[in-house]
UniProtKB/TrEMBL annotation:
Keywords: Hydrolase. Pfam families: 4HBT. It comes from the Bacteria. This is 3-aminobutyryl-CoA ammonia-lyase. Signal peptide: none annotated. The keyword Nucleotide-binding does not apply. Residues 6-129 form the HotDog ACOT-type domain.
Length: 129
């Protein structure tokens, strides 16, 4: 029996290693955040439906700020609509800690306010029953 309810939210945090820097300035490509959205969507499906489900589509993705190697990123998925087999999810990604290579090779800081870097809307599908 489904426990899917509008408002169910799952949050993950991840340190972004320097091995994932893809562009100058230690920038990380947007696909990295989309992969994290896939992970958090999987847990939403497990929490709501006792099944990993399948990611069906994104209806909107907005890259608002850069993600950099050395950041700690928090991603969140919230159910915004529950259908018979589908669930619409709202995603957000925030940098909560940022590397500070300008101070030293291993310096970092906790941001006073999380920095929203990406938001998206997507749909997952779970089996019937």
């Amino acid at each position: 029996m489904s426990k899917a309810t509008v408002g169910l939210t799952v949050t993950h945090r991840r340190y972004v290693p320097y091995s994932h820097a893809h562009y100058a300035g230690n920038l990380v490509d947007g696909a990295y955040v989309l992969a994290l959205f896939g992970d958090v969507a999987t847990e939403v499906c497990i929490q709501a439906d006792d099944d990993e489900g399948l990611f069906a589509s994104y209806s909107d993705v907005q890259f608002l700020q850069p993600l950099r190697a050395g950041d700690v990123v928090e991603v969140q998925a919230t159910i915004s609509r529950v259908g018979n087999r589908s669930r619409d999810l709202d995603f957000s990604a925030y940098v909560v800690c940022r590397g500070r290579p300008d101070r030293s090779a291993s310096a970092a800081e906790v941001l006073a306010e999380p920095l929203e870097i990406t938001r998206a809307k997507g749909t997952v599908v779970v089996p019937v029953g």
